[in-house]
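Most newcomers find our protein records easier to grasp once they have seen one. Sequence and backbone structure share a record, each on its own labelled line. To make this concrete, we reproduce a full record directly below:
***
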Amino acid sequence: MKKLGTLVLTATLLAVSAANAAEVLEEVEVQTTGKSTGSMTGMMIGGVGGPIGALVGAGIGALFGGGAQDVSGLSERAYKVRIADGHEKVVRSSEVLAIGEEVDVRGRRAFRTTNASTMEVAVR
């Protein structure tokens, strides 16, 4: 019985993610999709040269993949935010955020802060 209680407590603590208040500083562009696609393509092409060729190909592909995504104008949107404890972090959001807006950060995602004044404006 004692082990079950420990298991439930551990699962509950891991499931609950802490939300941190943050302020949006700027919008930044990230190229993670291009880097991962370039890396995979480079690894497959470099695999002809064996395991070392695959590693070298993956590295070169990641460099060129991110650059290709940037040049083509297909960069993804992310936001640099300042967390309540003062450090800065780059997070993603499915919503378009304004600079200076207060958001909740959960993990690597930013969500709009819901409070009474925001809901009051939405009702009007």
User: Anything to note?
Assistant: Helices lie at 2-15, 32-46, 51-71, 116-123. The two ends are 53 Å apart (CA to CA). The chain has one domain: 17-123. DSSP finds four helices and five strands in the chain.
